[in-house]
Design a protein that fits this description.
With LigD forms a non-homologous end joining (NHEJ) DNA repair enzyme, which repairs dsDNA breaks with reduced fidelity. Binds linear dsDNA with 5'- and 3'- overhangs but not closed circular dsDNA nor ssDNA. Recruits and stimulates the ligase activity of LigD. By secondary structure, this protein is α+β, with helices and mostly antiparallel strands. About 35% of the residues lie in helices and about 25% in strands. Among the domains are: about 110 residues, Ku70, Chain: A, Domain 2; about 80 residues. A 7-stranded mixed β-barrel has the order 1-2-6-9-8-7-5.
């Protein structure tokens, strides 16, 4: 069992549920060090005083905030600790909202919450089941590693999941970031065909169907170069579909998607039929065996 990275209490109303927090995700990543090209010399970073050129120990470093005009306000780490929210051990739920009302853009990182002791596991189970039954999520704030977080607490099967969230003022305005966005599409025929394509390509969400192919390529590159060989990946860059080719591309895409879906359905049906046939044969054998044994007893 992994060690919890935070422990405290979920508080809602007068109820307190002791929990521990655990990492729910891990990223695919290959570690690389930096070297000077053509050598085996490692590149390392040092904290250096730009005026003297001397290395500065970590405990003698303070922070400075740029206030413009080349001026900085210097702040000591101790001063930041004094104004920090504190080492709170409370997940204070202020309200419960419908999960479907939360825009996914607010979600930041997922953590598992587990009961921190067996004696109070019943209160954990009660909260989990109540959230699942109502399709609600608790909105809470808590402090971890000197920082205050906004979070949702929701049920997922047998476990409670905490999602850290971005505050509203941390979400950027798409109009300012992206610029000119097209108005509502007025092409009825193309829209209808696009909807048909989406329907034809729709299916069940199966996370295990999706793999990190880039990390696999990087691993293959490393392994191949280790053997003294060279790997060349060739991949054509897609071209934008012009407005004149849009209808043709949509029609061809719909037909291809329906064809793939049809072949998948046939395979699935064939498997189910074969399974049923095997089950029937097995049942028939069992019945025959029983009848045969009954006849022997009668004889």
């Amino acid at each position: 069992m992994a060690r919890s990275i935070w422990s405290g209490y979920i508080n809602f109303g007068l109820v307190s549920v002791p929990v521990g927090m655990y990492s729910a995700t891990e990223e695919h990543e290959l570690d690389f060090h930096q070297f000077q090209k053509g050598t085996s010399d490692r590149i390392r970073y040092k904290r250096v005083n730009e005026r003297t050129g001397r290395e500065v120990p970590f405990e003698k470093i303070v922070k400075g905030h740029d206030v413009g005009g080349g001026e900085y306000v210097i702040v000591d780490p101790e001063e930041l600790e004094d104004i920090a929210p504190g080492k709170s051990r409370s997940l204070e739920i202020s309200t419960f909202v419908d999960l479907d009302e939360i825009d996914p853009i607010h979600f930041q990182k997922s953590y598992y919450l587990g009961p921190s002791d067996k004696e109070n596991a019943s209160s954990y189970a009660l909260m989990r089941d109540a959230l699942a039954k109502t399709n609600r999520a608790g909105i809470a704030k808590f402090v971890m590693r000197g920082k205050e977080y906004l979070a949702t607490i929701r049920a997922d099967g047998k476990v409670l999941v905490l999602e850290t969230m971005f505050f509203a003022d941390e979400i950027r305005d798409p109009a300012k970031e992206v610029g000119n966005l097209p108005a509502k599409s007025g092409a009825t025929k193309q829209l209808s065909m696009a909807v048909n394509l989406i329907e034809a390509m729709s299916g069940e969400w199966k996370p295990s169907d999706y793999k990190d192919t880039y990390t696999e390529r990087v691993q293959k590159l490393v392994d191949t170069k280790r053997k003294g060989k060279e790997v060349v990946f060739t991949e054509e860059e897609p071209e934008a579909t012009t407005s004149t080719d849009l209808v043709t591309a949509l029609r061809a895409s719909v037909e291809a998607a329906r064809s793939r879906r049809g072949s998948t359905t046939k395979k699935s049906t064939a498997k189910k039929t074969a399974k049923k046939s095997t089950t029937k044969k097995s049942t028939a054998k069992k019945t025959t065996t029983k009848k045969a044994s009954t006849r022997k007893k009668a004889a």
